Amino acid sequence: MHQDAIPIILLNIAATTCEQSYVFRANQLKKPLNLYNCIVAKSSYGKSSMLNLVESAILAVRNARSTKFRESGNKSAESNHIRVTYNEATTAGVLDSLKGCTRLLITEEGDVILKRMGAFLLPNIGGRDASMSDDCRAQLINLYDHPEQCAKKLKTNIVEVFDSKLNILAGLTGELIERVIARRAQNALADALYEHFIFWVLSGDAIDTEINRSAWDYSQ
Length: 220
What we know:
Elements: H1 5-17, E1 22-25, E2 29-32, E3 36-40, H2 47-64, E4 85-86, H3 91-97, E5 102-107, H4 110-117, H5 130-145, E6 149-153, E7 158-162, E8 165-172, H6 175-185, E9 197-201
Parallel strand pairs: 3-8, 3-9, 4-5, 5-8
Antiparallel strand pairs: 1-2, 6-7
C-alpha cells in the first residue's frame, strides 16, 4: 500500500467507531466528528486495499461489541446482521439508515456513485435531474452540520434523524475532481458540499503489481 495509507485508514476507523462523539470549539460550540473524505489516486495505488481494511476493521468491532452501531430502540438484532457500511445510497436510503446510530458510506467507485448522487457541482449537468441532485446535496450538508437533529418532510410522512452520524469514504481516480476544478476555473460560486470533504491525494511511484517470474523458486 501507499506510504500514507495507515493514517488515512486509522482516521476513518476512529471516526466511525467513536459513533456520536463531539468536540467543543472554544469550550462552547458543540461540533460533531463527522468525516466526509475521498482517496484520490490512479489505479495501482492500493485504494481498494485501504477501503477493505477500513471496512474489515469496522465489521470486526461490530461483531466484538454487540451494543455498538444499533439503531435506536432495536435491541434484538444480532450484531452480525447490523449493516454498518453500505456501498451505494440514495437520499431516502441514507435517511432511512440513520436511526440514532452511525453509518459509513464506503465505495471504491466514488467517481460514479458521488456523481450519481450529485454530490459536487460540475461544469454542466449532462441531462441529470438537477432537482434530485440538489435535494441530495442539501441533505448531505444538513447531516454533516446537524446530525443530532434533522427532519425531512416527505409526501405522506416526516422522516426524522436524531443522534446519528454519517461518514463517507470514497475512492476517486481524479476524473470527478478534474471537473470540479474546471468549474471553479470558470469563476463559479463555491461548492459548499465540496468544501466539507477532505481529499487525500496519493502521489509518487505506483505500487508494483507486475509478477516477477524470474524470482520464482521452481525447485519446490
